[in-house]
Here is the input.
Amino acid sequence: MLTQEVQTILAEACNVLATGDRPLFDGEIGGGMSERCIETPWAAGYFRGGEKLLDVGFSLASPDWLGLLVELGRHHGVTLEAADIIDPERIRARYPKDWLDDVLAVPVMLGDFRQLDLPAARYDIATCISTIEHIGFDKAADKQSSSAFERPDNAACAPLSRPLDTNKKVLGQFHSALRDGGILLISVPLGKDAAGLVEDSMGLFASQWEYGPQSWKDLSSQPGFTVLEERFFSLRDDGLWVETDGPDACMTQPRRTLPHAQGVGLLGLRKNG
Here is the structure.
């Protein structure tokens, strides 16, 4: 059963697909919702139908984003392929029954995205929605584990560093896989330009990179791409999201162990041809 929040976000994203009108995000947004209320409709605005799509982070994608991917395949002629460290078959119980066949039909390349042998110049659009911040931290757990990821139950044991070349390697992979002129859509949590902690639904702790001015610049200035769009949003104490001028606006947010981000950055890139 989809939550009311997921249904609301997915309905907005599907409306973007149906009308072709990109969301404006004017004023106050969300009313207690996570950053998904911004990410998913924003990404939906880049699809026009018939694209070949590579999604990274597919298997455990948030339900609103997963629902949008299913919608793209069912009704908009989008051919979807994916990459992840988790096999969807392993976690099939988490998918809504009426999406299950669509999800399991998607070809998924398994492994660390930085090291996958990707097809060259194959995709029109690639998406990495709330995923790149986990690359370099998360690892797949043993198949006998109750959790899909290797994560500690003690916050002090969670890793707080990752390789400095993570952005470079990830965007290099996307550059190889996209056709000339292809589009890459990335969303990330904003924060302290350092690793932060998140507690998952099983009470285990995960690290993710909180992008700030320095790491955002590193992400957005990788060679071979032209920036199409950069947008930044901060979550106020009253639960509403507001647009800000840059990633530094979220640097004042205290780092906390929360189920969702306190700031989000959206990055649209085009592969140079």
